[in-house]
Fold these 2 entries.
Entry 1:
Amino acid sequence: MQTRHLLSWIELSKSALDHNIKSLARLAGKRAIAVSLKANAYGHGLAPMISLLRDRREIEYVTVHSLEEAACCRELGWDRRIMVLGPIALSELEAVFDWDLEPVVFTREALDKLGRLAAKRKTSVRTHLKLETGTNRQGVLEKDLAPIASIYKKHKYLKKPYGAGMHFANIEDTTNHEYAQHQLDRYNRMVARMKALGIGPTIRHTACSAALLLFDKTRFELVRPGIALYGHWPSKETYLSYRLAGGHNDILKPVLSWRTRITQVKDVPADAFIGYGCTYRTTSRTRLAILPIGYSDGYDRSLSNLSYVLIKGKRAPVRSRVCMNLTMVDVTDISGVKLEEPVTLIGTDKKEMITAEQLAGWAGTINYEILARLSPNTVRVLTDK
Ligand SMILES: *Cc1c(COP(=O)(O)O)cnc(C)c1O
């Protein structure tokens, strides 16, 4: 697609995605891979990601948070497996059958309702039981496994869970993996208990990106990476742990770049206030470039007076507050800047690069949030690079 007529767009690199999929497949070995398409595919866009993943046979599953996301995947033509990680309203569980989904279950109510619906339709359903091992979010407590087992057995079309999963609380923000080990021990104990109760799972899955990258013993029969698919490390600590263990530098390449265009260039005199709140005042004659993006597009307001963008391979600092739809940058020292010149907000321009991780650092958040909050309204463009 041509980007000439666009004032803001997100580029997705097909070769970077290909590279990351190969890296994930190498780490996963023979195990099934379920990649996460939550949050509009971590801001990359659900539709373009589905179109890119459809031909990738090594990806057997996608995981999503909600029923709505799952339905979108089906409508976009995803005909392989879908695991729904988040809750589904009891009154909506029928959709699990309509869309052929694999729900993660963690309440007796949902399980019982699924059992009754399955009996009514005379079709079985693959459920994944979420085990509570110490994240204390969604999940079934060890003491509740017995009543859960009796619900499974009561329903002829349920019988037992297809999968048993859990999620680590403290595997990416630390180089101390004691708590992760504790959770893994508890998980193994709970799976043994499930077997003893006659509801042993066919597949076990615990590995988010950080676990997949760092710990072989978390991989079991299926892995569930998210952020690594898109070429980002879950954290600096994960990257450090990986490198300390002798891993290679280049296994992940960022898929996404975000660009815009200058929509006005203007010279303002010394002592001029810029933007809302008059938080920036020039000390000398200044050339400003106005950009047609702001916090509603996902350029966080906390980047005000902090970050920079790239123009002609050079850094142009953000001046004053990021507005809802506009941002001002200083191009005084970049010669020959023209109207509709391309600007890089995330990505590389010549020898300079701005990463989602850098923006996250300035904004006091994590790369996940910077990506997940990119506006779904921005056009996504696929590139071969
Ligand atoms: C989002 C999510 C993942 C993927 O996590 P990443 O850190 O992005 O790899 C895996 N499992 C569950 C339950 C999740 O919610």
Entry 2:
Amino acid sequence: MIFRAFVLLSVGVFVAADVTVYAPGSGSLASGWENWSWSSTLDFASTAGPGAVEAISVNTTAWGALSTFAETAFNNNYAGLRFDISGAQPDVSVYFSSSTDSDASTSLPLASMSTVVNTTAFTTVTIDFSNLPGNEGVLATDSWNLINFQGEIVVEPLFLSAEPLAGNLLAVTSQGDVDFSQVSATLNGAKVTLSLSETYSPWDTPAQTITYFTLNTPLSAGSLVIAAGANTTFSYTIPALQYGTINIANTKNISPTIYGVNFPTDADYIKLLGVTLNRWGGNAVTAYNPDGAFTNAGNDWFFENRVSSPEANPFLQFVSDAGSKSLFTVPALDWVSKDSTSYSYPRTVYPDQQSYDPFNSDAGDGLLPNGSWVTPSPQANVYTPWNISLAAAMLEAMPVKPDIITVDNEIEIASSTHQDMHPDPMGYDEELARVAAPSTCAWWFYWTSEIGYTDNAAHNNQDFLPWFLAQMNKASAQAGKRLLDYLDIHYYFAPDTSANDAAAKALRLRMTRSWWGMILLSSYTSRSCKANVMPPTDPDYLDESWIGTSIPPQWTEPNPNAIWLIPRMQQLIQQFYPGTKLSISEWDSTDDTDITGGLVTVDSLGIFGVNGLDQATYWSQPDQLGPVGLAYWLYRGNGTYFGDKSVQVNLADNSQDVLGVYASTSDGVKVTMVIVNKDVVPVNLAISNIPAGKYFLRHFGGDAGVAKWQTTIDIAANSNFVIPSYTAVFFQQQ
Ligand SMILES: *[C@@H]1O[C@H](CO)[C@@H](O)[C@H](O)[C@H]1NC(C)=O
Ligand SMILES: *[C@@H]1O[C@H](CO)[C@@H](O)[C@H](O)[C@H]1NC(C)=O
Ligand SMILES: *[C@@H]1O[C@H](CO)[C@@H](O)[C@H](O)[C@H]1NC(C)=O
Ligand SMILES: *[C@@H]1O[C@H](CO)[C@@H](O)[C@H](O)[C@H]1NC(C)=O
Ligand SMILES: *[C@@H]1O[C@H](CO)[C@@H](O)[C@H](O)[C@H]1NC(C)=O
Ligand SMILES: *[C@@H]1O[C@H](CO)[C@@H](O)[C@H](O)[C@H]1NC(C)=O
Ligand SMILES: *[C@@H]1O[C@H](CO)[C@@H](O)[C@H](O)[C@H]1NC(C)=O
């Protein structure tokens, strides 16, 4: 429903002067207030109301609200809230909430404040905080910063989707009070009997519900038509069966720390998504000064100092409180931020820069109009010296110690990300001297340095990572102990999927093959090895980017048009520094909001497990309820985990472009599976050896949309599974 209201707000106060939220004639909210409305169309200078007095006009859809955010939180030390309102008996409720801790007051219906509100005049309404309307008592003490006017929530009953799922289910999503007796289905022209098994509404997406129906006959290839009332039908063609098998006798341990993210928000986030490793990293931490928790954004934001949020110690504390592990980056350049306000390139000193911070017009980007860097001013203007003993002292002083430490971040490109601190290009020797990791940013810098090929030439024509591993191996031998536990790299898919059209989505979903592939090499030292490469299961997946077509002549990597990242790195380690673990502390799906980004994440987490990757953290913090967050929830949500041993899966078809099937077990008996259908049509799978029994099922995607759907199902012996298009499914034997 739509409501229309004209509102004038003021907060009365007995401590200080009244605070005005909105004054007619201003055309906008008062200074210190922001529009945080949702699902609404608003006009802050409407004169359509009585007397043509300027007011805010609001039309909301279900769940929408006019919401005003106070930059300074208010409390019940104010006397109340006064506003003028006009409308055709608008069914509005007012409530107060806090964006910092998500607390909300009781919802106060306008009808409990005035019954005379009408379209012919504005009615003045006052909410007394010490005696809330409707005998709701006193407004609780809290740091309120949002005043919300919410329209009546009337939801039209509607069937939104109905899809085949697993062996014999229909998954029906709906809104409002629909009549489920209207749902019927025919399979290849014959009516099937349906029984309603469960209606489920996830606690964190309450506006949506899913209802599962069980068919009295298994889903099979052919035409499925689901009718939901007279005018709504959903039709599918279920394809022919694809065959596969699992072998629970053949298992391989999955490293527990592959389910990591960068910068989780808090302990609840970690627990609800089941995050196992939490990285404190990225460009800003290179300048982290524990003495004051200052940092500098570098080239990401006008080389400005600021206070780090969160600070290191509270971060390590909440990670530990959540029972999870931390991966902590220690700065390794010669400087860290000295305060929260300085910046490297003031306009007053360098008047001729390309751009300036829109929020601080004096802070520039350090670039001259012709693209060259300005010569940096002395580092001490912005930074304070940093060295290895200060780093050791920082770690020593930490009340909660990090589980794993990396030495800085993408330091090989410091001459651009931190041009002000380190203007000279970093070469092989300096990087080795500073870094034990090396958290290298991308494919290009795995094999060379910023200095360029003269640097490769100066190092026996060896590519960077093999050289780095060999040096660390040598140094470890000399020291008589292992000096590097993890080879840490960053990996960002190189194909361009930015168009996000059908072709780009399909490309995004198949490029996960660059994680794995197969590589059979006798040695990594010479190009002639190319002849030895005969990938048996992923024939020649060449990267669908510049990497797949160009071979920089100086590189000595075998098969450099294919990435095969995990096996390639494992082989490199095997050859140059055996026993080192492999870590990927930054990677992403290329789209955090599109369903295909979520499916890429599901597929990637499955691939990490099968291929023995040791640890990984997603860049950056996936939205808990977005497609990428749900990929973590699928494997690990709220205490229900994918198994810790990967079970062998064989599929008859070479369908890895559009399908991922991952099986696991923890006890060697019960099976947990994840299947991700990356195709735009359903897939119909017959996988032998899946034990019959009761299974817990979770899924997201497809027409059912991005939500935490779950139920319990029975799987019969030899049953086949239908997975809707663009859907990821988890099922765990109970
Ligand atoms: C108010 O904010 C909402 C989203 O928060 C936005 O959609 C809307 O356009 C804004 N309205 C005005 C008039 O600024
Ligand atoms: C709200 O809807 C009314 C009636 O359709 C319309 O006159 C008014 O302009 C709308 N207000 C806004 C802000 O869109
Ligand atoms: C409409 O609202 C005005 C202002 O509150 C009030 O004076 C008037 O009596 C109301 N009219 C009706 C018909 O309720
Ligand atoms: C179906 O559509 C017809 C015509 O479009 C309409 O008259 C009828 O009310 C609709 N029935 C339902 C159940 O929505
Ligand atoms: C850019 O301009 C600066 C200052 O005029 C000059 O020193 C520098 O050489 C120029 N760079 C290039 C690449 O032309
Ligand atoms: C690091 O800096 C501190 C403070 O300036 C100094 O006391 C210390 O000797 C330095 N350590 C090294 C290894 O240079
Ligand atoms: C998590 O699981 C617990 C125990 O099964 C349950 O009580 C709780 O409601 C769940 N929380 C969420 C947010 O799903």
